[in-house]
Amino acid sequence: MPVTIGALRESAPQETRVSLVPEVADKLLQGGARVLLQRGAGTRAQFPDSTYKNVNWADSGESVLEQSDVVLTVQPLSVEQIQRLKSGAVVVGYMQPYARPAEVRALKERGVTSFAVEFIPRISRAQSMDALSSQASIAGYKAVLIAANQLQKFLPMLTTAAGTIRPSMVLVIGAGVAGLQAIATARRLGAVVEAYDVRSATREQVKSLGAKFVDTGVSADGAGGYARELTEDEKRKQQEVLDSRIAAADAVITTASVPGRAAPKIVSRAAVERMRPGSVIVDIAAEQGGNCELTVANEIVEHQGVKIVGAVNLSSTLAYNASEMYARNLLNFLKPAINKGELSIDWTDEVFAQSCLTRDGRISHEPTRKALEG
Ligand code: NAD
After folding, report:
1. 143 with 314: CB under 8 angstroms?
2. Which end of the chain has fewer CB atoms < 10 Å from its terminal CB, N or C?
3. Which of 99, 7, 29, 57 is nearest to 323 (CA)?
4. Digit-coded pLDDT (tens) for 346-361
5. What phi-psi label fits residue 109: left (phi over 0), alpha (psi between -120 and 50 degrees) or beta?
6. What is the mean pLDDT of the chain?
7. Could you tell me where the DSSP H helices lie in the chain?
8. Active-site residue numbers?
9. How many Å lie between the centroid of ligand 1 and the Cα of residue 259?
10. Model's pTM, two decimal places?
11. Nearest C-alpha to atom 13 of ligand 1 is from which residue?
């Protein structure tokens, strides 16, 4: 029996992406799988039903969940949805395990094999599966466009008959995947860009994109190429230098995060109050609590003339390309497990082993198991 791979019309508010695009559905069909989609699954990402060829259709999400051997999702399934899954089904998508303990327990109890895209190891071989990166680069790009839209200034320098216009200064805090894309986008639009990160490797990356690296004298390289949390002393040192650069910026894009922790608070109320009226902060870390003290997720707060945009799910605002990239990431992840239309997972492969959240009635991702079960 060929494996049935299903995809839903996402039901979370503001989620417009789809986990399976026509190009990827074709590839799964060529690999011998059966593809089952909920009607309208791709509509909000501009993939109408007519663009999917030779797939099977279901009128409801429940029907997809009940019939599929593998379910591809963007947002985590709800407890009710998990209970509809076949016992032994496989789910691949974002799992947000620390924010959704009830869903993790439901996956475990239902005997579901779940893979969290958040835990796919960031090794060279897995770059093509790296959904965190593909979606973060979209967020970095979009954050700059939002800042440009909110500013009442040009980003580039302009020499006009009405005189010369000075370029805007954009400061990017956190130079990971999102931050580097924000730097590149702001540079393409002609802004003068400065950037800062606590990881020492970012210095050269920032410079190679034509931006100036802000040196605070603090470096905090943590495990696995990520940043570690700063000590109080380091935070003070960082603050002194950064505050003056924040005050000089027209737009600040904040992207800093530390895995498994709330986003570090880097832009204080006092720093916002030193900014010129009309300046803008776009906080991509809003969902993890925000890098700015005044950020409210999903809102634009105005404080003494400075706008603070609490950006949430920015990749969904570019749903067409975001879905293409995400669906390709999932295809590259699943491909090695599908052989002549049948599913067989090689558990000695670190990509499957490390990204597995639940399996055989237990939580197999150790940090999540510890957090949930002690
Ligand atoms: P992330 O989203 O976890 O964090 C964003 C950035 O915030 C990081 O660069 C981090 O150093 C920075 N940050 C954290 N605390 C900060 C603070 N107090 N002040 C300033 N900046 C702070 O990071 P990410 O974009 O997911 O990337 C994390 C790492 O993974 C990077 O080393 C990246 O190069 C690496 N990576 C590797 C691969 C691969 O090899 N396959 C793919 C993608 C990313």
Report:
1. yes
2. C
3. 7
4. 999 999 999 999 999 9
5. alpha
6. 96
7. 22-30, 61-67, 79-84, 101-109, 131-150, 177-188, 202-208, 232-248, 269-273, 319-334, 350-355, 366-373
8. 122, 127, 130, 133, 226
9. 9
10. 0.94
11. 256
